[in-house]
Amino acid sequence: MDMDEVLKIFIAESRELLEQMEDALLLLESAPEDADTINAIFRAAHTIKGSAGLFGLDLIVAFTHIAESVLDRIRNGELHFDETLTALFLQVGDHLGTLITLIDDGHDLEHLDEEKLKQNRQLSERLSEYMTPTRQSGGLPTSQERLIERSVQGGLSADHWHLSLRFGPDTLRNGMDPLSLLRYLNTFGRIVNIVPLLDRIPPAAEMDPETCYLSFEVAFASEADKATIEGAFEFVREDSLIRILPPHSKSNEYLELIRGLPEEDMRLGEILMRCGTLTAAELQDVLHAQVQGQQDAESRPIGQVLMEESLVQPPVIAAALQKQQQVKENRSNESNLIRVDAGKLDQLINLVGELIIAGAGARMTAQQCGHAEMLEATELMSRLVEEVRDSALTLRMVQIGATFNRFQRVVRDVSHELGKDIALSISGGETELDKTVVERITDPLTHLVRNAMDHGIEPQAVRQARGKPAKGNVRLNAFHDAGSIVLEVTDDGGGLDPQRILAKAQERGLIAEGQALSEKEIFNLIFEPGFSTADQVSNLSGRGVGMDVVKRNITALRGSIDLDSVLGQGTCVRIRLPLTLAIIDGFLVGVGQAGYVIPLDLVEECIELETSDLQERGHVSLRGEVLPFIRLRDLFEDESQPPRRENVVVVSYAGSRAGLVVDSLMGEFQTVIKPLGKLFGTCRGVGGFTILGSGAVALILDIPGLLSELTSSAPSNALLASEA
Question: Residue 662: which region, alpha, beta or left (left: phi > 0; alpha: psi -120 to 50)?
């Protein structure tokens, strides 16, 4: 078994559990008594502790055990979540996340630096303040209490837990080591005695080295509760037979244990004696009770036996069965999911891209040969490759909602720091986006959300004076639009003052004195490097700090960013991104001997360019509407002779429309996007390149960039308005 791979799984699952724990803690602020949410937090901590014990991560086990004990008191109603306790457990989650990251980076937790140890110690002390100094939940009772319980309940003499372990045959194949589970028990207790059972071990010639034949009867002394002990076997419970009896269990409980295990009753009883769980006299009483019970059952109808022995009412049984069925369904759904390394998905996408290029070459060869059967075969292959492409890209698509939900913590912490009452609302969380894009958009979104809270939302007194609700609101929204995804960060704060932005820009030399700009162009000045304001009281304070970095990161994803703002009402920052960075449907056009690819989602229509439609200053009349256009021949300085007939490809993006004048239309084309090198990073109008079936290189046009340039150079921005 590759322990490095297993450790990676532990790290990934722990991070997921910590995210779930944080989400649940934030939900508790609005519903502090929600039992399901409290149980979710307890399960997350319990699972992390159990998994950490398997790897000998004693620091995490000890720290999480204290947190788990406090959570257990909360579950039992002895404590209640308040703002202070919620904040403490958020810090606990952050600390566990730091320890997990250290493990991921290859650090040894036994040699932590003093700062991390101090933080661990301080959090442990703060958690310990919530633990009662009297008997803890799940702890062993005192000797006097045991005598009382025994006299009342009729329990037997054993003062330790008894574990009957029958590991499933696939335990080793599933990556679990039974001995490591036993070693983990020693982290919160002591194995008093252990008796291995050899019944299932076949002759040596018939043994399978990957099959587990191990079974044990274990006497275990611990102050832990039953849930903690069961948690040690959480990862093998499905395929194994695990039975746990608490200290001083009743004789009928031992009787049920003996009945439920596969070994013969008398032999199993002898094993229990060897463990020290039962004395000879107690074993005789248990077996005698079993014989007497069988005789009584033979003389009574089975229905009467069940009714007499059942202490649970039918409605309770029905509710328990329903809950059990829900758990089974959830586990069934979880079993349908597998964890795949992101690098393997990237490799798959790259191979699909090469397959598309190879398929285009085969199709071109078939067309040149004119062989009918080969043409039919290549057409079929092209359709199948397209389906494979769509399926492969779907594997990397994730919902943006998980990323949005992380900002609940950001909003909570920043609002407390600023002394503002701010709520975060989320919509469009089900919108799917390429995982690569999601990972790279988190930092820009974080900056925008922080800016909205710090410099957009006014203090409560100012908001109330303006007739606004005292609680500010930041909204995250996502939706699909024309083959792109749009992310919006909106606040109901003070908005942007265009005149103040203009004055600051002139003061810093970003624009010339007296230069006329539209309101949108003025707002876009905050994305210029170096734009900021020293006035921290103003609504504009800090709006431009770092915004150039945000824009640069968005542009690197082939996206665009703009904003709308109304003074006194709020601001909306809008980000447009491609759905994927790897493969798109393109439309291939030709200019001279060169080919260019336009994203198909941005193409509206294609028309033939008529001389009579041409107007002044690069505009054409399209059914009575003035449409600006760009000649790709002029843009790329192609000096070849233009054809007699040219075509116009009408494209639209973010509400703007324009025409691209080209020589020829070559049809749809599956496009594998290849990034440009650093040498060509400043080429305007180009977003990458692809390889055609002939082996030639075709440039992929940056339509948002071309439209933006056309907008800024147009004599009237109204010419780009679309009245669709």
Answer: beta
- Tens of pLDDT along 401-420? 888 988 988 898 888 888 89
> How many other CB atoms are found less than 10 A from the CB of residue 426?
16
pLDDT at 681 over 90: no
pLDDT digits 0-9 by tens, 653-672? 877 889 999 999 998 888 88
Burial classification of residue 36, based on how many CB atoms lie within 10 Å of its CB (0-12 exposed, 13-18 middle, 19 or more buried): exposed
Residue 90 lies in a domain: yes
Please report the pLDDT score of residue 174 as a whole number: 81
With b for 16 or more beta-carbon neighbours within 10 A and e for fewer, the 392-417 pattern comes to: bbeebebebbebbbebbbbbbebbee
The CATH number covering residue 22 comes to: 1.20.120.160
Q: CA 452, CA 474: separation in Å to the nearest integer?
A: 7
CATH, residue 192: 3.30.70.1110
Token duo for residue 682: 């400043």
The verdict on residue 328 lying in a domain is no
Gap between the Cα atoms of 314 and 334, Å rounded: 30
Mean pLDDT of the chain: 79
Task: Look up tokens 């809008």; give the residue.
Answer: 574
Buried/exposed 147-180: b ≥16 CB within 10 Å, e otherwise: eeebeeeebbebbbbbbbbbbbeebbeeebbbee
Q: Check if the beta carbon of residue 466 is closer than 8 Å to that of residue 570.
A: no
Which residues sit opposite 183 in a β-bridge? Answer: none
Domain count, the chain: 5
429, 406 contact by CB (below 8 A)? no
CA dist., res. 220 & res. 160, Å (int)? 6
Q: What is the DSSP string of 334-396?
A: HHT-----HHHHHHHHHHHHHHHHHHHHHHHHHHHHT-HHHHHHHHHHHHHHHHHHHHHHHHT
Question: Tell me, what's the pLDDT at 508?
Answer: 77
Domain match, 188 and 242 both: yes
> Do residues 381 and 421 both lie within one domain?
no
Between CA 97 and CA 104, with CA 103 as vertex, the angle to 5 degrees is 85
pLDDT at 167 > cutoff 50: yes
Looking at residue 287, its pLDDT comes to 57
pTM of the model: 0.62
pLDDT of residue 487: 93
Counting every residue written for the chain, the total comes to: 724
Q: Does residue 611 sit in the same domain as residue 677?
A: yes
* Predicted pLDDT at 472: 92
**For residue 278, what is the enclosing H or E element?**
none
Same domain, 392 and 405: no
Q: What is the largest CA-CA distance in the chain?
A: 112
Who wins on pLDDT, 134 or 341? 341
C-alpha span between 252 and 270 (Å, rounded): 17
Q: Within this chain, do residues 267 and 157 fall inside the same structural domain, yes or no?
A: yes
Domain containing 456 equals 399-578
Task: Taking residues 332-336, report their average pLDDT.
Answer: 52
